[in-house]
Structures are given as structure tokens and as C-alpha cells.
Design brief:
9-stranded antiparallel sheet, two-stranded antiparallel sheet, 11 strands, 44% helix, globular
């Protein structure tokens, strides 16, 4: 049997408003498939190097890198060298939380974004952020964690944040694709065909599939799977069993759900549920 080298812990921490997800991982063999988050991704890399593709642009995040990905932006991740792997931590604040902090620390009005540069090699800042992240992942004091999160978001916003009219990739999708996305996010728990979604968008099936892939960076099936997994995490964090969750979000059976969940997040549904607090 192949030795398991990946050590990935992902959970939803109920100490934060919105129950923010937090991740701490040492990855060697795991590969993150193309996916997106409804929240911001804020990651700090401590060791090794990760090869990634974000918004169709490839790059490498080495130790000392700070990465910020906007909601809705498709990305991947894998080790540059399998035997070296990479260590990192990440947290996933909602857009509303980031904007609330921005209103307190940044002047002006408009949407918050972090520019076109996804990765910043900033070893000193990364060191400080890793220390803050350790508090977020280890402390049992809810007030301490809230204060540290505010300081961490303040640091990232003041260094890299800006006010613009730009918003996330999915929110700026053309109207017909927006209709398709709304349909998927409403009917994810049902048996859905390409024809169903194409009709919601008012397009022919083949034209719709090409346009959807071009707009979102994912096939309609991958997008539906991503939506189901996102809803599954919410149910698991509330204590719903993996078997019931699989049925509630539209998977054929629990084994299919478990394989897909682990492929995307590096942990099983049961491990995620147990880690949520």
C-alpha cells in the first residue's frame, strides 16, 4: 500500500461570523482540480513550492508567498516536486466580511479587489501572517481569533487592496450565463441535464456548453459538482451525516460523494465534519 504523505486539515470555524473555513496542509501527492470558491482565498506558503493555474495563468507559489484569489476565480494546485511538496495555510473570508473590514480601514468607495497580481513574494509579511494563522488554527479563544483575523485582513487590505468597479468573474458573467448559474445554484440537488440548463440560458446546448466553459473556466458538469460540494460542506458543518448529505445535494450515492469530496479538498466528508467546531 502506498504511504499517505499528505496531511490536510480543513474545517469551518464557528468562532467567526459566517463560520469561515480554515485550512492547514502539507501536500505532496494531492492535486487540486480546477475549482472556485464563493469566498476569497487568502493563502500563505511556508515551505516547498506549489504549481498553480489561476484564471488561466500559470505560476509557482514558493515559501514566503502570499496569494489572494477573488471569489469565483477558477484555480488549481499541485506540487512542483512531489518529494518536496509544499506546506501552506489558507482561510476563506466571505466577500461581505472583507468589504466590512475594508470600510473600516480603506478610504473611498467601490468594490474591493486585490489587483491582477495573484501572488506576492513577501517573506517578512508571510512570516507575520503565518504567525497570525497559527492563532486562527490553534487558539480556543474566540475573541483572540476575531482580533487576529481583523489584523490579518487589515494587513492584506492595506498592502494589496484597492477600490475599483471590478467584481468577481462570476458576478460579471453575461446575462444568459448568469441565468444558467442561477439555475444550477437553485436546482443542484435535482437530476439536471445540459438541456435543462441551456434552456434556462436561452441557448442551444452546444453553443451553451462552449460559452459556459469560456465564461466560467469550468464545464457545466464541473460547475454543478462544485456547487454540490459547496452546499455539502455547509450541511456537514451543521452535523448532517455524510450519507444524508450525499442525497440532499444530488450525488448518486455516498461512495461517489466521498471520492469526489476528497479529490477536491484532500479530506473525507467525515474528517471535515469532525474538524468543524
Amino acid at each position: 500500500m502506498k504511504e499517505k504523505r499528505d496531511d490536510i486539515k480543513l474545517w469551518k470555524d464557528k468562532a467567526f461570523r459566517g463560520e469561515m473555513e480554515v485550512l492547514r496542509a502539507s501536500c505532496f501527492d494531492h492535486r487540486y482540480p480546477p475549482h472556485f470558491h464563493d469566498e476569497f482565498v487568502m493563502a500563505i506558503f511556508a515551505r516547498g513550492a506549489q504549481r498553480n493555474r489561476v484564471c488561466r495563468k500559470t505560476g509557482v507559489a514558493a515559501a514566503g508567498t502570499v496569494m489572494i484569489i477573488h471569489p469565483g476565480e477558477v484555480h488549481t494546485g499541485e506540487a512542483v516536486e512531489r518529494d518536496l511538496g509544499w506546506d501552506y495555510c489558507a482561510f476563506y473570508p466571505s466577500a461581505s466580511l472583507v468589504h466590512e473590514v475594508a470600510d473600516a480601514v480603506l478610504p473611498g468607495k467601490g468594490q474591493i479587489n486585490f489587483g491582477r497580481e495573484i501572488m506576492h513574494h513577501a517573506p517578512l509579511m508571510a512570516k507575520g501572517l503565518l504567525q497570525s494563522a497559527a492563532v486562527l488554527t490553534q487558539s480556543q479563544d474566540a475573541m483572540e481569533k476575531e482580533c487576529v483575523l481583523f489584523e490579518l485582513l487589515t494587513s492584506l487590505l492595506t498592502h494589496y487592496g484597492q477600490r475599483t468597479t471590478r467584481s468577481g468573474a462570476l458576478s460579471t458573467a453575461r446575462a444568459d450565463i448568469r441565468h444558467a448559474i442561477d439555475y444550477l445554484q437553485t436546482h443542484y440537488h435535482q437530476s439536471v441535464s445540459v438541456g435543462d440548463v441551456a434552456r434556462a440560458a436561452g441557448l442551444s446546448e452546444f453553443h451553451f456548453m462552449r460559452l459556459f466553459q469560456t465564461t466560467t473556466g469550468l464545464s457545466v458538469h464541473r460547475f454543478l459538482t462544485q456547487t454540490r460540494l459547496s452546499r455539502a460542506k455547509s450541511l456537514l458543518s451543521l452535523g448532517v451525516s455524510p450519507a444524508q448529505t450525499a442525497l440532499d445535494v444530488g450525488f448518486f450515492d455516498q461512495s461517489h460523494f466521498s471520492r469526489t469530496f476528497r479529490n477536491h479538498f484532500g479530506v473525507t466528508p467525515g474528517a471535515f465534519a469532525s474538524a468543524c467546531r
